[in-house]
């Protein structure tokens, strides 16, 4: 959708006000619960392993800023990027 000069975007929130949110609540609550659980487990694992992970604070930023995708990326990729400090 290309907006030409002189046109404005439709920012009407009336359709959002027409939604019956109480009907959607049984679907929304489990998704929110699983999201918070996933982020909590990921942050706990990050905290325990932050001295072993390559770029730990970058992974923390990814976990917190990318709600569902960040924790999954960390658990699949970030945990495998382990420092190999043989100096200590």
Structure description:
This protein is an all-alpha fold and 88 residues long. It has helices at 14-18, 21-49, 56-65, 69-78. The longest helix has 29 residues, at 21-49. The termini are far apart.
How would you summarize what this structure contains?
The chain is mainly α and 88 residues long.
- Per DSSP, the total helix count is 4
User: Mean pLDDT score, rounded?
Assistant: 84
Topology pattern, helix = H, strand = E? HHHH
Main pleated sheet: none
Relevant terms:
88 residues; mainly alpha; 0% strand; elongated
Topology:
Elements: H1 14-18, H2 21-49, H3 56-65, H4 69-78
Helix pairs in contact: 2-3, 2-4, 3-4
